[in-house]
Amino acid sequence: MSTIHDQAMNYVYQQVLQRLLSFFSRAERTALQLLIQRLVVAAGGMERMGEYKVMVTPSGTRDSCYMLALLRAAQLSIAGRAPATFQLRVATLRRSESGTAALNNMHRSFAALFLYDDPRVELLMVEHRQVLPFNHLAPLGMDSADAHRTNLLMMGHRRTRGEKLEWRDDACLAWAEFYGQIARWSNGVDAWLASESPRRQKQFVEDLDRAVQKAGIGALKPNSGTFDELFALLDGLGGDLYRGFYSESERQCWRPEGGFESCRRTTFVDIHDMAVGNLEERWPLLSEFLGFEAEEWVFHQGEGEYADPLIEAHLRGLEAEFLSDRSYEAGFSEHVQRMLANMQLQRVPEPVCEQMIARLGQQQTTEELREAAASWLHQTYGLNEAQWVCLLFTPFIERGAGLERFLRSCHPGMLVALPDLHRAMRGLHGPEQVMQWMMDVSGLPVRLIGRLYAMEPLPAHGAARQTLETALDAAGLDGSGVGDRSVER
User: Fold this and answer.
1) CA dihedral defined by 131, 135, 137, 143, rounded to 10 degrees?
2) 302 CB contacts (<8 Å, ≥6 apart)?
3) Which pLDDT value is given to residue 349?
4) Which of 106, 155, 160, 300 could lock onto 170 through a cystine, CB 3.0 to 4.6 A?
5) Phi and psi at residue 332, to the nearest 5°
6) Which of 267, 340, 248 is nearest to 301 (CA)?
């Protein structure tokens, strides 16, 4: 029965491969052969392919689903011509903003590629430092949401003065920690494949350097800026990239405990050059075969997997209203116009631009969009507008240097309590009402506000890029030549 079952499944897998290949252009078939050759060389020869384990870390974006399909084609092609093919680990990081669209895109792709129940494939999902089987229907746990909210706030409050609130600091730190740990899980993997361009890799390493400094664990060692040395950099940082914020008793270990190799053998295999053709050529494979449903306005905005353009525009609107003495509408509309200009410079297809315009609403008032963005942020992170405004001001860092300005601008009635607030942040006893106000307005417990209060200011060069981007914005430029923030995933 086992032999008959194996033969039947091999027939199914070959049918999947044939259907996959029917969507490939000549250039994509050539890229597939080059990918196979690269994997054979990395494994040390075709005879060792059965012992070779490859890992990919999709996020549910268009390009990550496409590259997974290409890698599956390589796995099945090798299986048809050799005694054994490589093992495949597919692992993704589950976070609060991991929307159902991305999870459903991954699920449909996995099903179309027959990854479920294939013994040569592991489908994993990491949530709150716990390795779990992939399940697109599983709700996000309350502990996971609480931890993510706290990490987001702690990273956000560590900005330097004048630095815009960005999503990518916390996201970059979380993904870097995920890469370093999931490669060691359950006997580890031999290779991590990623399709980011060299410029995108360089940007990630630069962002990580900034993020680890904000997290209080020092700067990265010198690096060429690519993923070739990423695991070595991560090993030098240690396994817990958030440890600068929390006491040992507050930290969550990676689980299941004892399931991680102490020594990693993983190498990086760059496959960014395997993505050939354009979106129009790939779209039949993505939509008809993989069942991909696009939210393209999200994936053309620089750090596409980190932010929705509506939320970005909302935060710029809040900055204008509360920090720059301008209107919310002015900050919102200026950011929308800048995004559209960037999309035109990147030659984004016109239908995609039209979709984003529809998303940001010619048919909706700015007030309606503001309410929609605030509702999404509250549902996703559990933070209200007052707490986001507090985060924009970063009033606690540098021993409360910005606290008085924050109070004068947003909570003038609390100015009389300024000495009590400073006492509470130094860890001294304060009135219960003052302590409760601090927690309500920030979304953080007083003990963590005190840690922000005591942390040393960031080095000046840590905000150099942000300062330059702010200057470029003021000059009406998009900054696309500074580290190249563009991304197509």
Assistant:
1) 0
2) 342, 485, 486, 487
3) 66
4) 155
5) -65, -55
6) 340
Q: Which residues contact 337 (CB under 8 A, 6 or more apart)?
A: none
Residue 474 has a pLDDT of 41
**If we measure between CA atoms, which residue out of 128, 235, 96, 131 comes closest to residue 176?**
235
In the predicted model, is pLDDT for residue 292 greater than 60? yes
| Number of Cβ within a 10 Å radius of residue 82 | 14
Token pair of 439 as six digits: 């927690």
Q: How do the domains of the chain map onto residue ranges?
A: 2-289, 309-363+464-474, 387-454
Confidence at residue 473, expressed as pLDDT on a 0 to 100 scale = 43
User: Residue 351, SS3?
Assistant: helix
The Cα 330–Cα 335 span in angstroms is 9
88-139 pLDDT per residue, tens: 999 999 998 877 888 999 999 999 999 999 999 999 999 999 999 999 999 9
pLDDT tens-place string over residues 165-184: 877 889 999 999 999 999 99
Q: What is the DSSP code string of 159-206?
A: PPTTPPP-SHHHHHHHHHHHHHHHTTBTT--SEEEE---HHHHHHHHH
Whether 297 has a pLDDT exceeding 50, the answer reads no
* Cβ–Cβ < 8 Å for 179, 234: yes
**Above 70 in pLDDT, residue 391?**
yes
What is the pLDDT, as a whole number, of residue 483? 32
Distance of CA 368 to the CA centre of its chain: 28
**Cβ 52 vs Cβ 39: under 8 Å:** yes
In 361-463, which residue ranges form alpha helices assigned H by DSSP?
A: 366-381, 385-393, 397-400, 403-410, 418-425, 432-442, 446-454
According to DSSP H, which parts of 24-141 are helical? 26-43, 62-81, 100-112
One-letter amino acid identity for 276? V
**Cis check: omega of the bond before 256, within 30 degrees of 0:** yes
Cα–Cα distance, 319 to 382 (Å, whole number):
20
